[in-house]
């Protein structure tokens, strides 16, 4: 990990305390798209962000954008979510480095291959499940103790409409995200009454991202919203004032 929290996180324009001042947020898939937008929105709210993705270059670009917007650095952690041992070490590493984790936003995802169910290949299925479902379980397991001890722990998992509305050829995404949703909502049910931890799913709907282009290379994305709206919505779910818990929240259409 590189860099660490900066002191004195106040809104420089108003002088008011930022809602996530002094808090630490982990964002997966932060090198581009919605993950980058979430990281920027959380940083703008005062959080020190731990950014993970496979691409070091993409993480550095996100960090540069955050520095320009807030004047603060992030902690960069290149991470392949197919590496179970690396995920397992994440919680202890954050505890050793920061002593806390207040927010976790899981944006990283794999499209898989758009193909009939009968044509799915073992390697594609295994890789998609590893990123979209197994990695989410490992993240929950490694960061839960930190979030449970946070004064207002927040966890948001990005999901996809195909998890609840299956469509032809989207079987890998649908099945893997449905598994993730079931696991996240089960975890939410297991949180004892009186806990300050809030856990939710967020479905941003169609967004103009690289993943969307990968899925539909010939589609016109000019009418779709960019990632910033999704980033702002997710950041709002991470604020201490948020009361929703165990819900699947979809973007307004």
TrEMBL record:
One of its GO terms (molecular function) is oxidoreductase activity. GO terms for cellular component: membrane. It comes from the Bacteria. Residues 8-21 have a biased composition (Basic and acidic residues). InterPro entries: NAD(P)-bd_dom_sf, SDR_fam. SUPFAM superfamilies: NAD(P)-binding Rossmann-fold domains. Residues 1-21 are annotated as: Disordered. The keyword RNA-binding does not apply. Keywords: Oxidoreductase. PANTHER family: DEHYDROGENASE/REDUCTASE SDR FAMILY MEMBER 7B, SHORT CHAIN DEHYDROGENASE. Belongs to the short-chain dehydrogenases/reductases (SDR) family. This is SDR family NAD(P)-dependent oxidoreductase. It comes from Gluconacetobacter tumulisoli.
